[in-house]
Amino acid sequence: MIEISSLNKKFGKLTVLEGLDLVIDSGGIFAVLGPNGSGKTTLIKSILGMVIPDKGEIKISGESVLKKWKYRNEINYLPQIANFPANLSVKELISMVKNLRPKEANDKALIERFGLEPFLDKKLGNLSGGTKQKVNIVLTFMFESELIILDEPTTGLDPISLIRLKEIIHEEKDKGKTILITTHIMSFVEEIADEIVFLLDGEIYFKGSSHELKERTGQRDLEHAIAHLI
Ligand code: ADP
């Protein structure tokens, strides 16, 4: 369980998170939504202990994330911007990450699933954005983790890869994992998310199912429901 209480974060004069309270139960898929700049990435990075809040606290399984740095390595995190070393090949990067995390890795099945075999010897700097994103996905899911945080995993993916990603997310959910995801693709959210967490003005503006959100706004599709929520 993730418990966030009275979280505040400012960057200079800009208040990004303000008194944010949120509880995320273990197990299930949670879509973190909100307009650009609403603080989704800041919230995610705070959960990871990569952003230090000005006030407030985040606990995972009852322990503060800032006191327990080891969590950072226990969470499967897909960053929005993957700064891969351009001169490394895909294969070299995967081995490097495997060496950093002495856990059993399931990279081969994922490489196959995303059709990455022909790219294994290619330099990361020469790959298209979509192919880099598939590498990002392989790196994220190749280890087992109770908590999986995906910041815009759908970016640049072709329709088949989107289906593969959806399958993998569902499989993780079926194993009892907790998945936090940000994305701009509402059909994706509708298909996979158990709950939507909507951020606005530094706070949680709505938390509930897409069905509840549609009922509350009187809209039939999620895109319009979100637009009517604000
Ligand atoms: P979102 O993910 O919802 O688009 P972010 O959390 O990335 O929002 O950013 C929220 C706001 O905080 C934006 O205005 C962004 O420019 C600003 N911001 C984020 N990180 C930093 C930083 N390290 N330094 C200064 N401003 C930042």
From TrEMBL:
<dbReference type="InterPro" id="IPR051782">
    <property type="entry name" value="ABC_Transporter_VariousFunc"/>
</dbReference>
<keyword id="KW-0067">ATP-binding</keyword>
<feature type="domain" description="ABC transporter">
    <location>
        <begin position="2"/>
        <end position="226"/>
    </location>
</feature>
<dbReference type="InterPro" id="IPR003593">
    <property type="entry name" value="AAA+_ATPase"/>
</dbReference>
<keyword id="KW-0813">Transport</keyword>
<keyword id="KW-0547">Nucleotide-binding</keyword>
<dbReference type="Pfam" id="PF00005">
    <property type="entry name" value="ABC_tran"/>
</dbReference>
<protein>
    <submittedName>
        <fullName>ABC transporter ATP-binding protein</fullName>
    </submittedName>
</protein>
<dbReference type="InterPro" id="IPR003439">
    <property type="entry name" value="ABC_transporter-like_ATP-bd"/>
</dbReference>
<dbReference type="InterPro" id="IPR027417">
    <property type="entry name" value="P-loop_NTPase"/>
</dbReference>
<dbReference type="GO" id="GO:0005524">
    <property type="term" value="F:ATP binding"/>
</dbReference>
